[in-house]
Design brief:
ten-stranded mixed sheet, single chain, TIM Barrel, 40% helix, alpha/beta, Methane Monooxygenase Hydroxylase, Chain G, domain 1, 21 helices, binds pyridoxal-5'-phosphate, 15% strand, Lyase, Ornithine Decarboxylase, Chain A, domain 1
Length: 620
């Protein structure tokens, strides 16, 4: 059984049952069953499945790890957490998150005005809200409104200008008030240490964000003079996302811990929290030699708690509450993208395509011979002969000595010989075999857009685990590269001999074959771009009732063609009129046909961009 590295990245969320990938939850339904149930309702194309129980699991795991560490070290501060909205703001996700979050007092983090409005409306009063990023006067005023609603809200200042604005807005809001209320203030510090990995830029000296130590002292003085030092409650840092190693975090913790203690000793008595931002990594690796995280959550939590305790003790200050803003860790696993395979592109190199002649060129006859008689003992030698013959035959074609049929036979036969040889020699791991696998790779055309659904693959070469959702009791044999349906050659996940993906040999005229992309729940959805006007796929929330029965809820279909154009600010009425006019005034069709065409046109306009069918017999 081939498990596509499930034990590395799967975190026990899935299991393989009777050859199918199933959810390791409730009565373990298969992903194929979910997919088919949605497709039977008429929704074709790619499908995003959301699993709220996996959000619940991540939140519980995070809180458990910190609660255990707090007990182990007899730590006096509390653990608190918020979800950073920029990681995923989609309502079906946020509503699921907030439903499972309430026992934990888990809140939201906002980095823009629109996110702040989500945080203000979705967070229950009592759970924390933190606000980061660059802010203008209006955004700060919104934070004051949130505070007056009763929210436990902390505004993290990224620069002295923001502090100045807070002071002014405070006067505005509280001058006349009998019970002045303002948000808490946090200070984001500019670390001298920085993270590592492709997302490390958010920490470190050259980072866009945070106060230098000089600015920090100025901010402190300013707060003291303006009499709002009693609002300063949090020291914040964020080291960058997908932190692959723990060492940079420890450095950052020491730096931030000492800043916290110093500010406290200077008189910031209301300072009670240290916010360690996000960065907790997710294991995306499908191959044991390419894992992306070198620490466990336990180690992470223990390090944070232990270091904070040590610094507080040595500086003689109270231990701070620990805040996290882990986003990727909470959201990544909750969604899975299921995408139908539409076509295999090298089907032309099939036995069926051979057109033997009565009299073939001698080298082609030899290729037939090699193909028929190749076996384990001679495989390497025959393979080399075949490759050599192919070179000669292609030269003969260029010189006009053989025809297109001979050339086609050559290509098919050599491909078949390479495949046979690779199969016979599969236990030998040589460079040559790797290179040849690359050459015979099968191109799977997949009904999805990498730009829309895996933008980090496109922009940062981030790997996402991928596997078929059935046939898992059959060994996949074809080295695979995946093509999306955009007209852009960047929409390809190429075959990588060092991180090989093998898929099954299927006949797309007869078989349904679905690939699943995992850990797409963090960042991918909102970063996804409508390149070629492929939009957010159809999504559905998978929940379970008390008896463990599966429910497919809150289905949202991918946007239809007119809505897509409307989003681009086209006047859809004008488009509608223009299309109708052209049909009605067309000189080449009669009245009856006009009605039929209009009917068809409106049907198509009500559908989404993804492909429904690609071949006559097919239903993708
Ligand atoms: C992006 C961001 C996070 C989330 O980081 P993850 O790596 O997704 O955990 C947390 N805090 C701040 C300030 C951020 O900008």
């Amino acid at each position: 059984m081939h498990d596509f590295g499930l034990e590395l990245w799967g975190d026990n969320n899935f299991l393989i049952k009777e050859g199918r990938l199933a959810l390791n939850h409730a009565n373990t339904p298969s992903l194929l069953e979910m997919t088919q149930r949605v497709r039977e309702r008429g929704y074709k194309g790619p499908l995003l499945l959301r699993f709220p129980h996996l959000v619940q699991k991540q939140i519980a795991t995070l809180f458990d790890a910190f609660h255990t560490a707090i007990e182990t070290f007899d730590y006096q501060g509390r653990f608190r957490a918020v979800f950073p909205l920029k990681v995923n703001q989609y309502p079906n996700f946020i509503h699921a998150l907030m439903r499972v979050a309430s026992p934990y007092g888990y809140g939201l983090e906002a980095g823009s005005k629109a996110e702040l409005i989500i945080a203000m409306s979705e967070t229950p009063v009592g759970a924390p809200i933190t606000v980061n990023g660059f802010k203008d006067r209006e955004m700060i005023a919104l934070c004051f409104i949130a505070a007056k609603m009763g929210h436990d809200i902390t505004v993290t200042i990224e620069g002295l200008g923001e502090l100045q604005t807070i002071i002014e807005v405070n006067t505005d809001f509280n001058k006349e008030s009998r019970a002045p209320i303002s948000p808490k203030i946090g200070v984001r510090i500019r670390l001298h240490s920085s993270g590592i990995g492709i997302w490390a830029k958010s920490g470190g000296y050259s980072s866009k964000f945070g106060l230098t130590s000089t600015e920090l002292l100025e901010a402190f003085d300013l707060m003291q003079q303006s009499d709002i030092l009693d609002q300063l409650s949090m020291v914040h840092f964020h080291i960058g996302s997908q932190m692959s190693e723990i060492a940079p975090l420890k450095k950052a913790l020491r730096e931030a811990g000492n800043i916290y203690a110093d500010l406290k000793n200077r008189g910031a008595t209301a300072l009670t929290a240290i916010n360690i931002g996000g960065g907790l990594a997710v294991e995306y690796g499908q191959h044991s030699h390419a894992q992306e995280r070198n620490y466990s959550l336990k180690e992470f939590a223990n390090d944070v708690v232990f270091l904070m305790q040590e610094i507080a003790k040595s500086k003689g200050v109270e231990t701070p509450d620990i805040f996290t803003e882990s986003g990727r860790f909470i959201a990544a696993s909750h969604s899975v993208l299921i995408a139908p395979v539409l076509e295999l592109f090298s089907q032309e190199y099939h036995h069926k395509g051979l057109r033997p002649k009565k009299s073939n060129p001698p080298l082609v006859d030899e290729l037939y011979d090699l193909f028929e008689t190749i076996h384990r003992g001679n495989a390497r030698e025959y393979l080399h002969d075949a490759l050599d013959h192919m070179e000669s035959l292609l030269t003969l074609f260029d010189l006009g000595y053989i025809d297109l049929e001979d050339r086609s036979n050559t290509e098919i036969l050599v491909n078949l010989i390479i495949k046979k040889a690779i199969n016979l020699l599969k236990n030998e791991d040589t460079k040559e075999l790797k290179r040849l696998q690359n050459r015979i790779q099968e191109k799977y055309l997949v009904n999805f857009s990498a730009f829309e659904s895996l933008p980090d693959f496109w922009g940062l070469s981030q790997h996402f685990p991928v596997m078929p959702i059935d046939r898992l009791d059959t060994k996949p044999s074809r080295p695979a590269s995946l093509w999306d349906i955009t007209c852009d050659s960047d929409g390809e996940i190429g075959f990588d001999p060092d991180l090989p993906l093998y898929l099954h040999d299927i006949d797309t005229m007869q078989d349904e074959y679905f690939l699943a992309f995992f850990l797409t729940g963090a960042y991918q959805e909102v970063l996804g771009m409508k390149h070629n006007l492929f939009t957010h796929p159809t999504e559905v929330v998978v929940t379970f009732d008390e008896a463990g029965e599966m429910r497919l809820e809150r289905l949202i279909e991918a946007q239809n063609l007119m809505d897509i154009l409307d989003d681009l600010d086209y006047e859809t009425n004008t488009i509608d009129k223009s299309l109708k006019h052209k049909i009605e005034h067309s000189p080449c069709i009669d009245e009856e046909e006009k009605q039929v065409l209009l009917g068809k046109l409106y049907l198509y306009l009500s559908e989404n961009s993804y492909l429904k069918t690609i071949q006559a017999s097919q239903k993708n």
